[in-house]
Protein 1
Amino acid sequence: REIDYWALGGFHAARELSVASGAAVYPGTHQGRNPSQRGPHGARLVEIDADGAIRVTSLATDVVRFLAERVEIEPSTTAAHLESVLDQRARSLVQEHAGVELVIHWAIGGEGPLLGELRRGRLAADLLAGLRERFGFGSAPAWSATLDVEPPDVFASGCTAEDSLRGDYLRALERMRSDASASLDLRRWLPASRLGRWIERAATAMSADERQRVFREAALLGGELLGGEGNPR
C-alpha cells in the first residue's frame, strides 16, 4: 500500500521494519518500566518532505535507564583488578549515558579461583557496596542494583570424563541438559506448603537461558559435593 509512514505499537524496544516503500517503525515506550526493558527508550520524530522522502530521528525521553553489564574474568584476575575494571566500566557508562539515571545489573563470568571467592565469601557484596558508594549518588547516579556471579561451565572442565561418582553424576546431568524435551519440573521437590505460590511458578516457567543456568548450577553444586579436593571452579 502506498503509505508513507506506519506508526506501529506493541513493543517496548524501538525498531524499524523493512518495507517496499516508506517506513514502518515501532517507536518503543518513552521509559523502560523494569530491568528487562534495557537500554535507551524514547520517541521518533518523523519528517516527510514534499517529495515523500522520510527522515526518522530518535529522541531519548527516559529519565531512568536499565543496563545489563557482563565482566569476564580469567584465572589470573585478582580482586583489585576486578574492582578496577568495574570502576572503569561504570565510569564509561556514566559518560556514555550522560544526564540519565542508570540502574545497572552486573554479571561476572569466566573462570579461575576468584570466581569461587565471589560465590562464597563477602567479596561480591563488598564490590557491590563500593560501586554504590562511588557511583550511586549525585545528580546523575549510576545505581548498581545487583552483582551476580555466573556459574562456571563444569561440563567443559573435563570432569565429565572421570571414572568416578562425580563423573557419573555429571554425565547423567549432561544427557538431560542436551535433551530439550527432558522435563525440568521441580514441583515434586517442593513441600506442599509452597505449592500455589510464586516459587511454584519459578520452578516450572523457565526460559531456555534459565534452564541452562539451572543445569550449570546443579553441575557445580554436585561436582563440589562429590569431588572433594580439586573441585571444579
Protein 2
Amino acid sequence: VSEQRPALNRKSTRRERRAAVRSERPPVRVQAAKRPAWRSPMAMLTGGALLVGVVVIVIALVSTGQIGSDPAQVKTPVSAMPDKALWDGRALGPADAKVTIEVFEDFQCPACGIFTQQTQPSLIRDFVADGKVRFIFKDMAFLDNGDPTGESHKAAIAARCAGRQDLFWPYHEYLYANQKGENEGHFSESFLLAIATKVGADPEQFAACTKDPAVLDEVIAETQEGMGKGVNSTPTLILNGEKLSGGVPAYVDLKAQINALLEGGS
C-alpha cells in the first residue's frame, strides 16, 4: 500500500504547497557534538592515576634525600669558627682542664642554634682558649621523635662522619647556620652532603660513613646517656657533672658559675 500524499489542486496557495512539500521530506537528525578524547572517563582515570604516581615518587625522593633543599643555598656561618688549635674531636680545649662543660644539643633545635651563635663564642674566648675549660658537644637527637631515619638523627650522624675527617667543628657550625624549621625535609641527605663538601670533606668517604649502622648506634647511645643524666630539653649544660636546671642561664651568670668552679668553689 503506497503512502498517501495530500492532494494539491490548483487553487492551493503557494504557502500551502510549500508546507505540503516540506511534510514529505524525512526528518533531519541532529547529531550530538562529539566529546574530546581527553574528556573521556578512561582518559580522566588514567590522568588521575599518573598524577598520584608522580606525587608518590616525589615524596619517596624527598624522604630518601635524593631531592630536597638546594645545596647551592648552603649558608656560611656568621659566627666565628672555633680555632683549629682547640679542636679535639667533638670537644674543644685540653682534656686536663679544671672545668668541663658538656652541652647536650639537637641540630634541629632553634635554641641550640642561638646558643652556638651567641653564647658558645664567649665561652671559647673567655675560658676555652686559655685552657681553663674543656667544652664537649653531646648528641641529644630527640626532635624527630626518636626516628632513626629522622632529621635529628641524620644531622647527628653527618656531624660525626665529618668528625671522622677531623671536620666536626666546621660541620657543627654550618648545621646551625642552616637551620630551617623542624622535620620539614631541609636536612636531606643531599643537603648534608653539600655541607660536607663546603667544609672540605671527601664526599665519597662521608657518604659511606653515613650509611654505617655503627654511627647511628653511637648517636642513639649518647642520646640515651643524656636521658640518663636527666636531660629533657636542649641545650642542656652539665658543669663538672652537675646539670644546670632551668635551661642556659644568662651569660653573666654562667660566667660567674664557671669562675666559682675555677676558684675551687662548688
